[in-house]
């Protein structure tokens, strides 16, 4: 009787871990893009508009950096 090995190693990753690596990569790319859009949107606001929402220009990068505050 023949069997198929579904846990074959691909380099240092197993086939099951490959999906996790791709998912993590997509998640990182998505977080980077969200931060880029946030940074771009906040940069368009005037100093007064930023002050109205409790921010200053120096806060933009801190807030937009991958959602960390």
Q: What is the N-to-C succession of helices and strands?
A: EEHHH
Total of helices: 3
Question: Into which percentage range does the β-strand content fall?
Answer: 5-15%
Q: Could you tell me the mean pLDDT?
A: 81
Largest sheet: 2 strands, antiparallel
C-alpha termini separation: 58 Å
Give the strand order of the largest sheet, numbering strands 1, 2, ... along the chain: 1-2
Poorly predicted runs of 5 or more residues: none
The percent range for helix content is 55-70%
Cα-based radius of gyration, to the nearest Å: 21 Å
Shape: rod-shaped
Helix-strand makeup class: mainly alpha
Per DSSP E runs of 2 or more residues, the count of β-strands stands at 2
Total discrete domains: 1
Which tags fit this structure?
rod-shaped; mainly alpha; 69 residues
How does this model look, in words?
The protein has 69 residues and is mainly alpha-helical. It has one domain (13-64). The chain is 59% helix and 6% strand. It has three helices and two strands, in the order E-E-H-H-H. Strands 1-2 form a two-stranded antiparallel ribbon. It is rod-shaped, with a radius of gyration of 21 Å.
Brief overview:
By secondary structure, the protein is mostly helical.
Layout: helices, strands, pairs:
Elements: E1 9-10, E2 13-14, H1 15-43, H2 47-52, H3 59-64
Antiparallel strand pairs: 1-2
